[in-house]
Amino acid sequence: MATSTTILNCTPHSIKYRPAGRGTVEFPPTGIVPRVSTVESEAASISCTLDCGGGFILDCIQQSLGEVEGLPSASPHIYYIVSRMVFDAAPDRVDLIVPDTGKGAVRDEQGRIVAVTRFIRR
Protein backbone atom coordinates (compact mmCIF):
# COMPACT_ATOMS: atom_id res chain seq x y z
CA MET A 1 0.00 0.00 0.00
CA ALA A 2 1.30 3.48 -0.92
CA THR A 3 2.04 5.92 1.88
CA SER A 4 -0.05 9.10 1.87
CA THR A 5 1.56 12.53 2.06
CA THR A 6 0.06 15.27 4.25
CA ILE A 7 0.36 18.97 3.45
CA LEU A 8 -0.06 21.36 6.40
CA ASN A 9 -0.48 25.08 5.83
CA CYS A 10 1.64 26.95 8.37
CA THR A 11 0.76 30.42 7.08
CA PRO A 12 -1.94 32.67 8.54
CA HIS A 13 -4.09 32.58 5.39
CA SER A 14 -5.70 30.00 3.16
CA ILE A 15 -3.64 28.81 0.18
CA LYS A 16 -5.50 27.96 -3.02
CA TYR A 17 -3.74 25.64 -5.46
CA ARG A 18 -4.85 25.08 -9.05
CA PRO A 19 -3.14 22.04 -10.51
CA ALA A 20 -3.22 21.82 -14.31
CA GLY A 21 -6.44 20.28 -15.59
CA ARG A 22 -8.10 20.07 -12.17
CA GLY A 23 -10.18 22.20 -9.86
CA THR A 24 -8.89 24.32 -7.01
CA VAL A 25 -7.54 22.63 -3.88
CA GLU A 26 -7.61 24.74 -0.72
CA PHE A 27 -5.19 24.37 2.18
CA PRO A 28 -6.73 26.11 5.21
CA PRO A 29 -4.45 27.59 7.88
CA THR A 30 -3.62 25.18 10.71
CA GLY A 31 -3.08 27.90 13.32
CA ILE A 32 0.63 27.00 13.38
CA VAL A 33 2.52 30.07 12.16
CA PRO A 34 6.30 29.81 12.46
CA ARG A 35 8.22 33.07 12.54
CA VAL A 36 11.83 34.11 12.07
CA SER A 37 13.39 36.28 14.72
CA THR A 38 15.66 39.12 13.69
CA VAL A 39 19.00 40.01 15.20
CA GLU A 40 19.86 43.72 15.29
CA SER A 41 23.27 45.30 15.70
CA GLU A 42 24.67 48.81 15.48
CA ALA A 43 25.67 50.27 12.11
CA ALA A 44 27.38 53.52 11.22
CA SER A 45 25.10 56.54 10.90
CA ILE A 46 24.96 58.53 7.67
CA SER A 47 25.46 62.29 7.74
CA CYS A 48 23.25 64.08 5.19
CA THR A 49 22.95 67.65 4.00
CA LEU A 50 20.02 69.32 2.29
CA ASP A 51 20.19 71.70 -0.68
CA CYS A 52 18.76 74.42 1.58
CA GLY A 53 21.79 74.20 3.85
CA GLY A 54 20.37 72.09 6.67
CA GLY A 55 21.63 68.70 7.71
CA PHE A 56 20.65 65.63 9.63
CA ILE A 57 21.88 62.20 10.65
CA LEU A 58 20.32 58.93 9.48
CA ASP A 59 20.55 56.47 12.36
CA CYS A 60 21.11 52.94 11.02
CA ILE A 61 21.19 49.36 12.26
CA GLN A 62 22.05 46.03 10.66
CA GLN A 63 19.55 43.17 10.69
CA SER A 64 20.06 39.48 10.06
CA LEU A 65 17.82 36.45 10.26
CA GLY A 66 17.74 34.74 13.63
CA GLU A 67 16.18 31.47 14.69
CA VAL A 68 12.94 30.02 13.32
CA GLU A 69 10.36 29.84 16.10
CA GLY A 70 7.23 27.70 16.17
CA LEU A 71 8.11 25.35 13.29
CA PRO A 72 7.01 21.75 13.88
CA SER A 73 9.68 19.07 13.81
CA ALA A 74 10.14 17.18 10.58
CA SER A 75 7.93 14.10 10.25
CA PRO A 76 7.88 11.45 7.55
CA HIS A 77 5.33 12.09 4.80
CA ILE A 78 4.43 15.62 6.00
CA TYR A 79 5.22 18.80 4.09
CA TYR A 80 4.70 22.23 5.62
CA ILE A 81 3.63 25.27 3.59
CA VAL A 82 5.57 28.20 5.08
CA SER A 83 6.49 31.80 4.27
CA ARG A 84 9.51 32.46 2.07
CA MET A 85 11.31 33.98 5.07
CA VAL A 86 10.88 30.79 7.14
CA PHE A 87 11.93 28.68 4.12
CA ASP A 88 15.12 30.74 3.66
CA ALA A 89 15.94 30.69 7.38
CA ALA A 90 15.73 26.86 7.57
CA PRO A 91 17.93 25.67 4.66
CA ASP A 92 18.37 22.19 6.15
CA ARG A 93 14.63 21.43 6.09
CA VAL A 94 13.60 19.55 2.93
CA ASP A 95 10.00 19.23 4.16
CA LEU A 96 9.19 22.94 3.66
CA ILE A 97 7.41 24.31 0.61
CA VAL A 98 6.48 27.86 -0.39
CA PRO A 99 3.67 29.00 -2.72
CA ASP A 100 5.17 30.25 -5.98
CA THR A 101 3.67 33.73 -6.26
CA GLY A 102 5.67 34.57 -9.39
CA LYS A 103 4.79 34.15 -13.05
CA GLY A 104 2.63 31.06 -12.55
CA ALA A 105 0.28 32.60 -10.00
CA VAL A 106 -3.38 33.18 -10.91
CA ARG A 107 -4.37 36.81 -10.37
CA ASP A 108 -7.65 38.74 -10.37
CA GLU A 109 -8.34 41.99 -12.26
CA GLN A 110 -6.59 44.04 -9.56
CA GLY A 111 -3.47 41.86 -9.72
CA ARG A 112 -4.13 40.12 -6.39
CA ILE A 113 -3.16 36.46 -6.17
CA VAL A 114 -6.18 34.16 -6.02
CA ALA A 115 -4.36 30.84 -6.48
CA VAL A 116 -0.95 29.34 -7.17
CA THR A 117 -0.16 26.71 -9.77
CA ARG A 118 3.03 25.39 -8.18
CA PHE A 119 5.19 25.41 -5.05
CA ILE A 120 8.90 26.03 -4.40
CA ARG A 121 10.88 23.29 -2.68
CA ARG A 122 14.46 22.14 -2.16
**What is the distance, rounded to the nearest whole angstrom, between the alpha carbons of the first and last residues?**
27 Å
Order of helices and strands: EEEEEEHEEEE
Query: What's the overall average pLDDT, rounded?
Result: 93
Strand order, largest beta sheet: 1-6-7-10
Q: Approximately how much helix is present in the residues? A: under 10%
Q: What Rg is obtained from the alpha carbons, in whole angstroms?
A: 20 Å
Q: What does this entry look like structurally?
A:
The chain starts with 5 loop residues before the first strand and ends with a strand. Helix content is 5%, strand content 45%. The chain has one helix at 84-89; strands at 6-9, 15-17, 25-27, 35-49, 55-69, 78-81, 96-99, 106-107, 113-115, 119-120. A hairpin with a 7-residue loop joins strand 2 (15-17) and strand 3. A 4-stranded mixed beta sheet has the order 1-6-7-10, with no helix packed on it. The longest helix is centred in the C-terminal third of the chain and has 6 residues, at 84-89. The protein has 122 residues and is mainly beta.
Notable features of this structure?
1 helix; two-stranded antiparallel ribbon; 10 strands; mainly beta; flat; 4-stranded mixed beta sheet; 122 residues
Secondary-structure blueprint of this entry?
Blueprint: E1 6-9, E2 15-17, E3 25-27, E4 35-49, E5 55-69, E6 78-81, H1 84-89, E7 96-99, E8 106-107, E9 113-115, E10 119-120
Parallel strand pairs: 1-6, 6-7
Antiparallel strand pairs: 2-3, 4-5, 7-10, 8-9
